Amino acid sequence: MATVLNITNQGSLILMLYEGALKFLGKAKEALTKKEDSDVGSNIIKAQNILTELMVSLDMSKGEVAKNLYKLYDYMNHRLIEANIKKDSGLINEVQGMVKELKDTWELAIEKLEEEKV
């Protein structure tokens, strides 16, 4: 039971990080439409900081899943660097979609664990 609680607690923290990244990416896109380049950059950097936090918190001893998530976060980080340089909403959309998909997957996993706990 304790393991399930730990996983759901950790999952909740991960969900909050994903939600934060999505919030900052949304603000970056909004600033982009208003031609507020400094706000675009600062919000992209905030999203990148969240991705970096997700990267460094991975337990690489857990195998391929952790390694693949690391590669995915690294890819998203590079796309955001490019988005910031080019001020490209398409690249922000790409990363937003990837983060949203990861968030949805975590939500399903947590829901499943909660059901098994009952």
What are the salient characteristics of this protein?
118 residues; mainly alpha; Four Helix Bundle (Hemerythrin (Met), subunit A); 4 helices; 88% helix
Describe the structure.
This protein is mainly α. The chain has a domain at 21-102: Flagellar protein FliS (Four Helix Bundle (Hemerythrin (Met), subunit A)), CATH 1.20.120. Helix content is 88%, strand content 0%. Helix 1 runs antiparallel to helix 2 (37-56) and helix 1 packs antiparallel against helix 4 (89-117). The protein is elongated, with a radius of gyration of 16 Å.
Task: Annotate the secondary structure layout.
Blueprint: H1 2-33, H2 37-56, H3 64-86, H4 89-117
Helix pairs in contact: 1-2, 1-4, 2-3, 3-4
